[in-house]
Amino acid sequence: MNIDIIISSEDIKEEKIKGKTIVIIDMLRATSVIVTALYNGCKEVIPVIDIEEARDVVKNEREKYVLGGERKALKIEGFDFSNSPLEYLDGSAKGKILVMTTSNGTKAINRSISAERMLIGAMINASSVAKKVVEVGNDVVIINSGTNGEFSIDDFLCSGYIIECILKEIKVDMSDIAITANYMYKQNEDLITFIKNAKHYNILLELGLQKDLEYCCRKDIINIVPEFINGKIII
């Protein structure tokens, strides 16, 4: 098995992911939301790029859906949920289809549909993702959604942790960037200490989202691995 990393949604190229198993990471906060919502009873998640596209999906059968997402880390006007995973813990989306649009994560998902398998990962389900990757046995590309098309420390350390979990199971070949992510994680296993330097972390902190940050940095509190199949994310 080979492991590689793509460092932002803007760097996704079909030739790098075609035929591969990919893991989409946007730990602050889109993939943490997806994992949390599905774990707490959401039926499925439809990730879209544009706000109007999200509204179009739900307009004829609004009772079946909830709308969630953000722009500039803030809740979108008229949506049911922001991009906080904490809003899904009480089962508010149970039995509903979540239509979701975010600045980075849903963009990365929609740019990666040529992959053979697409798994959704975050710190909160990292070890389960690693086990699924080992089970599938295909070459892996971990895609960091990044922040506004740029490298993001938080996604990179999450990648490093997932790689560390994989290495506990099997031997792999890694690209230089995958080796670097794993090394960076091992030097900073107390995630928040280092992630506090990340630009996106501090944007969320300034918005008063400390509890979101603490939740998203927790390791392995959920044991499901959502997968994107035919336009929707399910478990």
**CATH homologous superfamily identity:** ComB-like
Cross-sheet strand order for the largest sheet:
7-2-8-1-9
What's the total count of β strands? 11
CATH class: Alpha Beta
- Please describe the biggest sheet, giving its number of strands, its sense, and whether it closes into a barrel: 5 strands, parallel
> What class, by secondary structure content?
alpha/beta
The CATH architecture would be: Alpha-Beta Complex
Which band does the percent of strand residues land in? 15-25%
CATH topology: putative 2-phosphosulfolactate phosphatase
- Terminal residue distance: 24 Å
**Domain count:** 1
Molecular shape: globular
Distinct helical segment count: 10
Mean residue pLDDT: 96
Task: Kindly provide the radius of gyration, computed on alpha-carbon positions and rounded to a whole number of angstroms.
Answer: 16 Å
Following the backbone from N to C, one meets helices and strands in this order, namely EHEHEHEEEHEHEHEHHHHEE
Q: What share of residues is helical?
A: 25-40%
Low-confidence stretches: none
